[in-house]
Amino acid sequence: MIAAFDVDAQRTFTPLCPNELPVAGGADIATELNAQAALADYRIASKDAHSAHAKWVVDAPEKMLQSLPYADADLTWVRHAEPGTEGFELIPGLPDAAEYDFLVYKGVEAAMHPYGACYHDLNNRISTGVIEWLQCRDVDTVLVGGLALDFCVKTTALQLAEAGFRVYLNLAACRAISPQGAEQACNEMQAAGIILVQDAALMSAMLG
């Protein structure tokens, strides 16, 4: 069985929400995410769902990426992806949330800011349930895309690979915060055995 995973493909990570965490081209990946979903038996998604009282929030972009003393929130970020705001919503062109087979809401706790969608904490201790859900449905292959490549997508893919899934990363279905971050993320994923694919068409050919 195959699952397609839309990781944090939310407006908060696109120029549609310029005051949050806009990633260049972030709103342009829906077509590729839909194409890879057509290759899968299940379609799942994760969404950042951050509290308005999150302890890691700073009021200006220049204050971001500073270290924090909390065990499960390592860096500061501007406010983003709060439920009820535009940034929380999925990017245009994706299905409604209710149409997915499984949803992960992460980062709900005010003192926690996970990147990967498989665990609520940075130490990979508290499961979100998605790994177990996939295992119960005999999924052995996961097709991954989303935002942003160098943070949440990379971490989710690594967590899935560590759990024993065969993971394909669709580069055309991702955008990164920086070219340097993208390169480092791709190197880490390849070292973990994750298969990097240029687009869903090539992914289809590889899957047979």
TrEMBL record:
<dbReference type="InterPro" id="IPR036380">
    <property type="entry name" value="Isochorismatase-like_sf"/>
</dbReference>
<feature type="domain" description="Isochorismatase-like">
    <location>
        <begin position="7"/>
        <end position="196"/>
    </location>
</feature>
<keyword id="KW-0662">Pyridine nucleotide biosynthesis</keyword>
<comment type="similarity">
    <text>Belongs to the isochorismatase family.</text>
</comment>
<protein>
    <recommendedName>
        <fullName>nicotinamidase</fullName>
        <ecNumber>3.5.1.19</ecNumber>
    </recommendedName>
</protein>
<keyword id="KW-0479">Metal-binding</keyword>
<dbReference type="InterPro" id="IPR000868">
    <property type="entry name" value="Isochorismatase-like_dom"/>
</dbReference>
<comment type="pathway">
    <text>Cofactor biosynthesis; nicotinate biosynthesis; nicotinate from nicotinamide: step 1/1.</text>
</comment>
<keyword id="KW-0378">Hydrolase</keyword>
<dbReference type="Pfam" id="PF00857">
    <property type="entry name" value="Isochorismatase"/>
</dbReference>
<dbReference type="InterPro" id="IPR052347">
    <property type="entry name" value="Isochorismatase_Nicotinamidase"/>
</dbReference>
